[in-house]
Design goal:
The protein is mainly beta. The chain contains one helix and 15 strands, in the order βββββββββββαββββ. The strands form four sheets. Strands 4, 5, 6, 7 and 8 form a five-stranded antiparallel β-sheet that branches.
Length: 177
């Protein structure tokens, strides 16, 4: 599991059946950051989270790859950097493809959900991402669910706030970029 406490991001191994923690938690990031998202590629754990270097800076999405378990130091790099803040990443790896989504915009009134998918890599999925929500609406908090069958499909769900209406939107991943 990956989680945030105050200004720190942590990972820990958990037994899927019982929910019991199997290892001590390990801090992998600190600073002004958001809730991490996680996905597995075989035995490798990947996490994405929003972070910024100062209050006047925009958020970018960082990526950590734990290639040898959570006891070893992860490889950390930038995943999504744009002119506007990129926050609330969602992430899944399955059926041979990387799927990533995030909200891009300001932090209060305007945002668009972006979605990318690639069989090659996370970087390729980000490079091919397209805005999915309509402009001028406050679209936020995307979530991804991939199907478990080969060639699986799945869903992307996000919130939209366009006062006075509040809506939950969705799109099948088979029809997305």
């Amino acid at each position: 599991m990956a989680y945030r406490v105050a200004d720190e991001a942590w990972v820990a191994e958990v037994d899927r059946r019982t929910g019991r923690r199997l290892s001590p938690p390990r801090r992998f990031a600190r600073g002004d950051l958001g809730q991490p998202a996680l996905a597995f590629d075989g035995d490798e754990l990947h996490t994405l989270w929003a972070t910024r270097s100062g209050a006047a800076k925009t958020y970018a999405i960082a990526h950590a790859r734990f290639a040898r378990g959570i006891d070893a130091d992860p490889e950390i790099d930038a995943a999504v950097e744009r002119a506007e803040s990129t926050i609330a990443p969602a992430f899944a790896i399955g059926s041979g493809r990387w799927v990533v989504a995030w909200m891009e915009g300001d932090l209060s009134r305007r945002g668009r959900v972006h979605l990318g998918s690639s069989a090659a890599s996370l970087a390729d999925a980000v490079a091919h991402a397209q805005p999915l929500s309509e402009p001028g609406i406050n679209a936020r908090d995307p979530k991804i669910a991939l199907g478990s069958a080969p060639g699986g499909g799945g869903w992307l769900v996000w919130s939209e706030f366009a006062p006075p209406a509040i809506a939950l939107r969705y799109a099948p991943l088979s029809s997305c970029p």
